[in-house]
Task: structure prediction
Amino acid sequence: MKIYLAGDGSDIKYKFQKQYTPYILDSFYLFNKGDGRRKIQYVEDWDRDRFLLDSGAFTFMNGSHKGKVDFTEYNKRYGEFIKRYGITQFFELDVDSIVGYEKVKSMRRELERITGRQPIPVWHISRGKEDFKSSCKDYPYVAIGGIVTKEFRPEKYQYFPWFIDTAHEAGARIHGLGYTSFEGLRKYHFDSVDSTSWLAGSRFGFVYKFNGESIIKYDVPEGKRLSARAGAVNNLIEWIKYQKYAERHL
Result:
């Protein structure tokens, strides 16, 4: 299993790319703000099998941008970015809840036209079971969305094996978007997942340690203060160790 490190800590993620070659998921939205332009230099040299690009749809579905974006134009710019930098693994613009699934499918086709590649379709419960089956037949890489937003609620996780088996039977790989329960990753054999959890330590004042099989969280001793940067670097390195373990054993 490949565990991609997601979240807006990309300056740290990319700093260690040559030394540790981590799996990274980044957002097109984040390349268009702050130091995003500077990060592009790293992407140009990145191992394409170790990089996943997300459209930034989650930001729009849950932030102040909702209802204020021309998604047709955004999808076009997304496709042009993918083509310009030779990105090979990228998700579709899965904004079903905003523009409807028919519009999403139209943008998917346009994305394919612009890039000359197939995106990773992101299945949502509203699309139905048959749509997932057909996606697995038509695309070599599919994803389950709605896990972070609780659309795909924990009581439904028991159905993960059906999704995983259906994808594998069709010869497709499957990604669990935002799913990194340590117990769950041993139980459900996704081909890849992503997580922002490695960033939580520097936000909330604790450090991670890889113990050979999993990640353990340690609180900073009372009266001590954790350097945000040093904590983030430590946590990144420990999560990269977990990535390497997961690739061999999960």
Q: What stands out?
A: The chain has a mean pLDDT of 90. DSSP finds twelve helices and nine strands in the chain. The beta strands are 2-5, 24-27, 51-54, 122-123, 141-144, 173-176, 192-195, 206-210, 215-219. The longest strand covers residues 206-210.
